[in-house]
Amino acid sequence: MLDMIRIKPLTRLEADDIRSLNTGYTSLAVYRVGKDESPQRTLFSLELAELQHPFVKHWETDDEELAMLQGVAGQGYSLGAYHDQLLVGIALAEPRRWNRSLWVWEFHVLPGYQRSGLGTCLMQNLVQLARQAGLRTLVVETQSTNLPAINFYRKNGFEIDGIDLSYYTNDDLVNGEVALFMKYKLGDG
């Protein structure tokens, strides 16, 4: 199937494109995040926990977010994967020049094309684009509840590099959905 896919720069993003690709996720396990703080030290922990019932997450891209993503697509660091004229994968990214990073805002592959190697190919192209631009790292944010994404990013050279306990709400730790930041370090430090 991969020989029928073309990856090329994505400079324009339509609302239907992101809404059809952003299908959400289902996870059979999650990372439980812990924090233990005292005046002498603060410890954070991530512990993998299998679930009795799958965690299913769906969300809608609102008009404000869509406008932001459309702006990101126009910066020259985003890629689309096409099967004929159908957009089947997307990597929306923008550089942060002050710290030489490439922030990956959205990374999706249509369900029928997942587990075919397309996501890895798309990520490899994004890594190459970052290298050519002289950047030092790629950054993704995902949820502690999104084990499929965490496993995909790890398989592709990313590691967990940060946790934000109040990225989504002030009660993320209580709600169990915590932002994890993962990085792929290109070297050139």
Give a description of the structure.
- By secondary structure, the protein is an alpha+beta fold.
- The chain has one domain (2-185): Aminopeptidase (3-Layer(aba) Sandwich).
- The chain has helices spanning 15-21, 63-73, 118-132, 147-155, 172-175, and strands at residues 5-9, 25-37, 42-57, 79-83, 86-96, 101-109, 137-143, 159-164, 179-185.
- A 7-stranded mixed β-sheet has the order 1-4-5-6-7-9-8, sandwiched between helices. Strands 2-3 form a two-stranded antiparallel ribbon.
- The radius of gyration is 17 Å and the shape is globular.
The stretches of 5 or more residues where confidence is low (pLDDT under 50) are none
**Major sheet strand order:** 1-4-5-6-7-9-8
Describe the global form.
globular
Q: Give the proportion of residues in helices.
A: 10-25%
Number of self-contained structural domains:
1
Q: Helix/strand-derived class?
A: alpha+beta
